[in-house]
């Protein structure tokens, strides 16, 4: 994986390339080459006009984009993942615990709890661009340029499929697997998603839950495996700094207790049952 510091990057303008599976002919791509300390030069071909891309553009927030990606270097290292790969690109708060750190904590749990293994996102590679937004603000003479400072991250995962593509018993099975995974992680002193009560010293709290991006699945040996995905708004409960206390959950799937003025003012404690209720709304 790429170290925290940027060693060197190069890119080419958008170009038309042979489309990835599911993309239309004439798919527009963006190609990047990033120098990695272990792998050498890592090539990334981002399929930015692919039908399965998830985009968010704006002047505020993380501006998260998830697009299919192909890479000769990563395909060689990981034996051509049969489901392909997806790149997640976003501007994360520099002062917040990174998604990489959250994933490491979850992976530690998976090492000692076999029932957790296989139900977490498989991270292939990551890179942090060491050009924070504070540098731009400082150059423009913006007061307090480091306030809300953000850093650009790119994470490459094994490609997953949203639960919304399933029906009938397959839908119920994957949804149920995600609930069991959540319970196991909670018992192991990790909490996440909408922002459950802290359980020190080994806990994670976070915000947001949606059927499209958080409840995912892949196929292994003919069996559908449910995955709880997307940890970029999670935070370690015992870490000082931004904890994501703002209400950023997907309204359609949030517990009713969290849709109140008291919650908006930060007066409602997020509980375990709030997340279970959220999972119920997702299934409905």
Give a concise summary.
By secondary structure, the chain is of the alpha+beta class. It contains six helices and twelve strands.
Oligomer: single chain
Cα shape: globular
Contiguous low-pLDDT stretches (5 residues minimum) are 1-19, 190-208
Lateral strand order in the biggest sheet: 1-2-3-4-5-7-6
Structural class: alpha+beta
User: How many β-strands, per DSSP?
Assistant: 12
- The total count of helices amounts to 6
What would the keywords be for this entry?
284 residues, alpha+beta, seven-stranded antiparallel sheet, three-stranded antiparallel sheet, 6 helices, globular, disordered N terminus
Question: Mind explaining what this structure looks like?
Answer:
This protein has 284 residues and is of the alpha+beta class. The protein is 22% helix and 26% strand. The protein is built from six helices and twelve strands. The strands form three sheets. A seven-stranded antiparallel beta sheet has the order 1-2-3-4-5-7-6. Strands 8-10-11 form a three-stranded antiparallel beta sheet. A two-stranded antiparallel ribbon has the order 9-12. A hairpin with a 3-residue loop joins β2 (28-36) and β3 (40-46). α4 runs antiparallel to α6. The chain is globular. The model is unreliable at 1-19 and 190-208 (pLDDT under 50).
């Amino acid at each position: 994986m790429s170290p925290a510091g940027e060693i060197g990057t190069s890119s080419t303008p958008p170009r038309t390339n042979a489309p990835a599976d599911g993309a239309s002919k004439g798919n527009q791509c963006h190609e990047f080459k990033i120098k990695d300390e272990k792998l050498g030069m890592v090539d990334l071909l981002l399929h930015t006009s692919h039908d399965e891309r998830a985009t968010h553009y704006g002047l505020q927030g993380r501006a998260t984009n998830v697009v299919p990606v192909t890479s000769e270097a990563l395909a060689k290292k990981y034996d051509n993942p049969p489901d392909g790969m997806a790149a997640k690109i976003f501007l994360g708060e520099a002062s917040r615990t990174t998604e990489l750190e959250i994933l490491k904590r979850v992976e530690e749990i998976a090492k000692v709890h076999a029932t957790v293994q296989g139900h977490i996102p498989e991270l292939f590679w990551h890179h942090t661009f060491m050009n924070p937004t504070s540098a731009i603000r400082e150059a423009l003479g913006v007061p307090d340029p480091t306030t809300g400072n953000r850093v650009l991250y790119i994470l490459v995962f094994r490609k997953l499929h949203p639960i919304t593509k399933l029906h009938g018993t397959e839908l119920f099975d994957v949804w149920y697997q995600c609930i069991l995974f959540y319970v196991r992680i909670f018992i192991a002193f990790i909490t996440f998603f909408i922002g459950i009560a802290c359980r020190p010293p080994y806990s994670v709290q976070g915000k947001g839950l949606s059927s499209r991006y958080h409840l995912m699945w892949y196929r292994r040996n003919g069996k559908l495996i449910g995955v709880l995905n997307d940890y970029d708004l999670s935070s370690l409960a015992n870490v000082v700094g931004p904890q994501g206390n703002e209400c950023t959950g997907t309204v359609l799937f949030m517990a009713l207790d969290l849709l109140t003025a008291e919650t908006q003012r930060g007066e409602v404690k997020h509980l375990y049952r709030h997340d279970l209720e959220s999972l119920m709304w997702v299934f409905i």
